[in-house]
């Protein structure tokens, strides 16, 4: 049950914040989470950062072709993940949501398998890195075209409403996504239907090089909710518990039939847009440094320490365990081996077309004629 | 003359066109300060400022639709779509507005504009960074479509496109952006006429027809054939709509054997159009059926990025078949 004190004010001027920079609790209600839950949240933050750093390294080593770092977004994503009922609620993420996927339990071997395109990838090596998906976890497989997943998320939420089982949907995206027509189509339809969905904007103020000023004339993004008949919340996205409690209350409201909401979480991406980007062309290093000062992981650790029950020894143990976990996952994902060439022909439709069958035959014949091994 | 890459040539040509005609404006995602994610608009923001090099919101519908409106008001917009794969949110503007404006207004309004987009695979980008969507545009009356394969061709075709009177879909083979280098003339007009292709090699044993990024593998295959004593005539279409029917039919009628190469999916493709035209017009001159070597009827895969492309081996296999027929 969410108490009234835990409900939040929509359309606030200042971002909703529950822990300050020093780790002190600011909430008007007591934090009702037990140690095990708080420590699990912290572990997810640390694990997500470690995975992120490993991905950057693997990209530099040429083992993966691309990364889109989530560093700086972790609190928003982990807070959101913990507010979900995993396996029941649906998640429609975007490519930067590695921490979200990790925190809802996407197996790390699958994660690295997806990134490397090996047999460890549940999606059979079909997509470029940073495109999670999982049927068991109800993670709608990421598609690269920005905002193209939003209308589908609305549809799933409408279906949940019709099913009447009290499930809800979370759909995440960046600030740039709010400019696409699909974004507006999805919010408008969700508003008209009162669908149980929370739209989450991870606002890092840049869409590659384009800053928010050039993205929209609007003063902030949460305010856009107003026109679609839903509340909009501005949240400090580097405050894990603010993200968690806002999401928890909005998902409960959605389950209770109170309809959709939009949440703008203010975050920052520490790295370039992706491994293919050079952000020095458009961002002042001083700005990056200033945001790093507000690091969500450091802030949450201070909160845990101040609360008691977290110390240097616990920290050391966690870090060592995380490194081991990541090492093992990378090794297993790589050892799974490359996907067979002919897998490229599968899963196009429920049954291969005669046209595709013929193309596959000709492909095999050409490979054989060139002396290639077509056994795989 | 120094060597210039494909992508440098695009930036350089845009610079020249913008100096020549102040009605030329650029718009797209990251085309300003960033100079484009591939640097196809590098230095232009510094040279011409934010009024002529416009960083747009993340909306392809806004980019292409606004270009139509700018064109109607007398500007000469050159829009960039960051990847051809992302043209689809702007597809309606291209197909319903740009392509049909002249026709539906009885010629009162026109949309002289260029929509540039990097296309094609082989860059480990998966299916949303590798597609070749040219067939959609070829199938849309009112659009011109061009897919130049070399830096100098890109320059000549871009000059023609910017100065023309119709909406042009300008596809650029991103796989060759840096890989393809040439000595490219500067500051002289070198317009390559709409609908005119070019013979890249002369030969009497088989005709190879291709365009865009696949020209590279097609020429490699021709070279390999030459080693075996087989002379291939190689045609680079350059323009896909209108395309150089006269050149293709003349060479195919003379040689009697033809293999068509493109990395776009097989069914309903540009190659299907060329093959059907050959069958309609010069069937009695053929020694063998025209064969297509193409991508497959699948989304572009990630892990098998290279296998999907019609490489020299698949081209040679098809050539052998038409020779043995
Ligand atoms: C429809 C579409 N257009 C363009 C792109 C190319 N692109 C990839 S990411 C990106 C910027 C996205 O910015 P934002 O939505 O703010 O998310 P962020 O990456 O900052 O988290 C662009 C333009 C795309 N993926 N899809």
Describe the structure.
The complex is a heterodimer of chains A (376) and B (325). By secondary structure, chain A is α/β, with parallel strands linked by helices. Chain A has twelve helices and seven strands. Chain A folds into two domains: 8-339, 3-Layer(aba) Sandwich (Rossmann fold), CATH 3.40.50; 340-376, no CATH class. In chain A, helix 1 (35-60) packs antiparallel against helix 10 and helix 5 packs parallel to helix 6 (181-193). Chain A is globular. The N and C termini of chain A lie far apart (55 Å). The mean pLDDT of chain A is 96. By secondary structure, chain B is an alpha/beta fold. In chain B, 36% of the residues lie in helices and 18% in strands. Chain B contains twelve helices and 14 strands. Chain B has helices at 6-20, 44-48, 60-72, 91-98, 101-104, 134-138, 151-163, 215-227, 245-255, 270-282, 305-308, 312-324; strands at residues 3-5, 24-28, 53-55, 76-80, 113-119, 144-146, 167-173, 181-183, 198-201, 206-210, 232-236, 239-241, 258-261, 291-293. In chain B, helix 10 (270-282) links the parallel strand 13 (258-261) and strand 14. Chains A and B meet through helix 12 of A and helix 3 and helix 12 of B. The complex binds thiamine diphosphate (TPP). Thiamine diphosphate sits between chains A (96, 144-146, 173-177, 202, 204, 206-208, 273) and B (29, 58, 60, 82, 86, 89).
